[in-house]
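S1.2 Input.
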Amino acid sequence: MQTIVEIAAGSWDTFLILAPLFLLGLLIAGLMNMLISRNQVQRFMGGEGLRAVTASAAFGVPLPICSCGVVPVAMALRDKGASRPALLSFLITTPESGADSILVTWGLLGPVMAIYRPFSSFLNAIIAGILAIALLDPREMNEARAEPGANDSGEGCCDTLAPEDECANDDEFDSYIGFSGLAASAKAAASRQWDRFRASWPLANCYKPHFYPHDKPTDLSTSKPPGVVALGEIGRRVFRYSFVKLADDIVFSLVIGVLLAGVILVLMPANLDEYGLGGGLKAYLIVLVAGIPLYMCASASTPVATALLAKGLSPGAALVFLLAGPATNTATLVILTKRFGTRFVSIYLGSIVAGSILAGYLLDILVVTIGISIVPNFSAQASGLLGAAEWVGAILLIALIVWRFANGAATEGLREITVNLRRLIFPLMKTARRLGDKTKFSLKSGWVWALLLTVIIGFLLSRRS
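S1.3 Output.
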């Protein structure tokens, strides 16, 4: 019972710090969706050269879309003319970074990691795009187009992976109006308020200039120029996109990530460096392999990396987990292989693995040579304005999680994790079965699983002070 209480306390401290930053990140993402149109993204992603690759990587950095959610978006962009090198860079930066994850990283790991993480993702995407330009034949048409209404195997990131996928083109959540539309809406709202003020003023019959002249008397509560969206409607669209669509994609994995952070803080050894897992290539490869089946978005992986860093993992190894984990779930790899071919996915996966390890190695060098300090933060503000903001954010985020779970976000999140693990475990089980047939060794033996479980539990409980 004491262990459970300690896990809950560690998870709560993490949740308290990230809650207001996470909510702010969702709001910023909704505002970006309102101000940047898909046509603008497609226009910059249409070329085959370095300009399209760079623009795609830049567009992907602030977008808070998970690795599975970005697949239908990429397919829709491809069907509308985006080049494969540009898509490759977009597929890398989008799941690895995001406005919400940058803010959460700032709160838990400090400004250095919050800046270095998206910068590494951007450079990784540029390198991948350059490799795609050099290695992908533009005349090669080896993309396995999905049939409308069917996906790769009846299950995956979305229920449908057709070019006109509803996951990518759902008009219900398309809140784009642009900067000019926002300015027109604000001007129209100011005009209505002025008309109300002038009508209620004792000298209402005196001439007062209108922002928009009317030929006939109009209802002051509803009058606005044709084609202008009311500010209230803009707010509703932003809310639906930020706290419905994006929240449904993220909140389940966020809860899992926060709970895992608490488990790591309590059950893992106090100093991973004593076991040779603090840093170096061995640690990089371990966190790289561990991140594949977890299926966590960029925000959800941040508290896990923070807890690992607190247990002695090097900042570079934590960065490898932050970059490679959100971008390499098995469901995404399977779908991309069927749609774009093995060469495309080989460049994609190879760039993520090599780029994240290189970025982690360089970060560890900078920490040692320059003395950069990256300290995990699990200390919530006890009082003051920041403490109040953390508590208010935590209460609001709990309400959001309960609301979205009640509307199916928990069921969908569990399904996605199950599909991802099934895609990973089934091929391994088939391989093991073939080996077992040849060596008379079966993984179905109960003592084998008991031995593995004993080793795992013994490792987790062997904490050192």
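S1.4 Remarks. DSSP finds 17 helices and no strands in the chain.
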